[in-house]
Write a structure and sequence with these properties.
Helix content is about 30%, strand content about 30%. It has about 220 residues and is α/β, with parallel strands linked by helices. Helix 1 crosses helix 5 and helix 3 runs parallel beside helix 4. The protein is elongated. It starts with 11 loop residues before the first helix and ends with a helix.
């Protein structure tokens, strides 16, 4: 698991904007959408699982074994889940993940038992919702390898920021720098909001953000 220095966290929207300024990808929402947003921001690290079509030799048993591991601070990321005709994640797997310390799950496919997952409190983002399960149509192809969600490639241990606005993945090599710069961007937006609340009109109130964008784009 990759260590990222603790501290105040930017909003996912600010982090996504910063990545966009620098011509990089990383936001996972879309293609994923929220099924339980959770409360507040959390920075976890990816525990990756790649599924593939077909029953395979062991089906989803390797995923079940993973959910018995120590998952403290981890975000379970399942790529390839859209190969299943139904949901690959629901109340049982959410309960197991929470019991082992996971802070969230990102599923590139369907989930179910959404009201129950919301009651449990696990942050959950996925492509869609389904009533039926996977029906033996997918298997675990790899644990701990690279996965792709939309335009973003993730590897084991990549930091992932989750809040009520979305999910954004970061390359571990420069995650600290990106988080710090995104926090600068976030605070500039807060200055804009404070100025608007104080009665300034938008063209003048927007100055701190415009200046931050110029600095951060060229850094």
């Amino acid at each position: 698991m990759t260590d990222v220095a603790p501290g105040p966290l930017p909003a996912t929207a600010a982090l996504a904007d910063l990545l966009q300024l620098r011509g990089r990808a990383g936001w996972l929402t879309p293609p994923l959408r929220p099924f339980h947003r959770g409360s507040g921001a959390v920075l976890g690290s990816a525990r990756t699982v790649r599924l593939a079509a077909g029953a395979g030799t062991h089906g989803l048993k390797p995923l079940h074994a993973l959910l018995a591991e120590d998952l403290a601070g981890r975000v379970v990321v399942i790529g390839g889940a859209d190969a299943a005709p139904g949901a690959v994640w629901g109340e049982i797997l959410s309960t197991a993940a929470l019991a082992r310390g996971a802070v969230g799950a990102l599923i590139e496919g369907a989930v179910r038992d959404v009201p129950a997952v919301a009651r449990l409190g696990l942050r959950l983002w996925a492509r869609s919702e389904a009533t039926a399960g996977p029906g033996g149509a997918v298997h675990v192809a790899e644990i701990g390898g690279p996965v792709r969600i939309g335009d973003t490639a993730l590897v084991e241990g990549d930091p992932i920021l989750l809040d009520d606005g979305g999910a954004v993945a970061l390359p571990a090599a420069d995650a600290d720098v990106l988080l710090a710069d995104a926090l600068t961007y976030h605070r500039a937006e807060e200055e804009v909001l404070a100025a608007l609340t104080a009665g300034l009109r938008l063209p003048r109130a927007y100055t701190p953000k415009a200046e931050a964008i110029t600095r951060l784009r060229n850094r």
